[in-house]
Amino acid sequence: MLDSLVTSKTRIKLLLKFFSHANSGYLRSLAKEFEESTNSVRVELNRLTDAGLLLSEDEGKTKLYRANQSHPFYTEIRNMVSKFLGLDELVEKIVKRMGNVEKAIITGDYAMGIDSGTIHLVLIGKDLDQEYLNFLTEKTYEKIQRKVQVDLLAQDPGDIHGILVYGA
């Protein structure tokens, strides 16, 4: 869906990153997270910043990027990203009722900007309600016609590559 509108996979990843949650990021960390060259990420960050969709601020020798919430298309892009991911309601419900969710990270194809039909989600937290999660994933499939595959972890191993949609 998004990949037919936006031809740059790196740009899709950046839009998903910044418009799915109030994320911010630095060039090098984004390049590492996306497993892309810093040059390709820099080019897309510059394009999105020049278009006014992202804001950048200097922090010492580095720049911190984040979504420009005052941009006229901010809400529309955020809604498109949420629909693309199909997880806006699921993550909101999970955080409210699953227990102590520390982080929710989209991994796999959707984190790469590819609509494969299966959304991989990693939830990190303690004492999470697996039964309620099973109920939610079934309801999500009925609603958005995408399978949701969830991995539960008690602790963050620190090496999960994807898009953080909840937590810090």
What would your notes on this structure say?
The protein is of the alpha+beta class and 168 residues long. It has 2 domains: 2-78, Arc Repressor Mutant, subunit A (Orthogonal Bundle); 86-166, 2-Layer Sandwich (Beta Polymerase, domain 2). It is 44% helix and 26% strand. It has a 4-stranded mixed β-sheet. Strands 1-3-2 form a 3-stranded antiparallel β-sheet. Mean pLDDT is 82; it is low at 1-5. This is PaaX family transcriptional regulator.
List low-pLDDT spans: 1-5
Mean pLDDT: 82
| Alpha-carbon distance between the two ends | 28 Å
Strand coverage percent: 25-35%
Largest sheet: 4 strands, mixed
Strand order of the largest sheet: 6-5-4-7
> Number of domains in the coordinates?
2
Structure summary, number of beta strands? 7
CATH structural class of the largest domain: Alpha Beta
Helices, by number, come to 7
Would you tell me which CATH topology of the largest domain applies?
Beta Polymerase, domain 2
- SSE string, helices as H and strands as E: HHEHHEEHHEEHEE
Backbone structural class: alpha+beta
Helix content: 40-55%
Radius of gyration: 16 Å
Protein name: PaaX family transcriptional regulator
InterPro entries: WH-like_DNA-bd_sf, WH_DNA-bd_sf
